[in-house]
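Dear colleague,

Thank you for sharing your sequence with our group. We've completed the structure prediction you requested, and as agreed, I am returning the results in plain text so they can be pasted directly into your records. Please verify that the sequence below matches your submission; if there's any discrepancy, let me know and we will rerun it promptly.
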Amino acid sequence: MPLSYAGKAPRGVHALKRRISRGTSRRWIVQRFWEEMQPTPEMRAADFGVSGRRSLAATFFERAYPWKHQLTAIGRAVEGADWLAEAFPGLTFLEADLRSIPLPDDYFDIGICNAVVEHGGTHEQQRALVHEVCRVARKVMFTMPNKRFPIEHHTLLPLVHWLPDHQFRAILRFLGNDFLASVENLNLLDADTLLSLFPPDRETRLVRGAGWMRFTSVLCVSTARD
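Please find the predicted structure tokens below.
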């Protein structure tokens, strides 16, 4: 069964969030990806950290990207996403941990790593993930929820993620969110912390969001220097 990173919340709240994000944030992410990456049919592209969930929200990038024969979706075995190659003919699925991708340097021209880094473990594990993604892709757009936004993205709880880390995780366990209480599954970042994870020899910059996304999310683009 695919992993779910949605915490427990009152009935209907997550459904409302999905309806809002489907019409705003994901559409804007695709638009910004197009503007920043300027993809062409000749470019190799990657979706780093795909989910096995079959929803529109989980597969929005695969649905939007026109050149499936140049697109590789990379995900861990535990995510159960190997069905993507059949669902999107032409797409290549690669089963791999993003901290150890079995591909040569600069294999991809462009890529996206959407809402993945915050699920990458400790800061050192997150750093290893970011470095490995950057190793195999010359230009990548990263997105994630912003820790500085007062409502925690996965559980929709207000302010608790600003508490000392051990208190935040204790509250998650108390409310039945044992999976997210583990740092291996949820480790929130703000913009400055995310930027600190990148290799210093790359050009990495923040990208301003649109509408609510300028507050709720952090987006950045990292490019290999020639």
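Summary note from our side: The longest strand covers residues 137-145.

Kind regards,
the structure core
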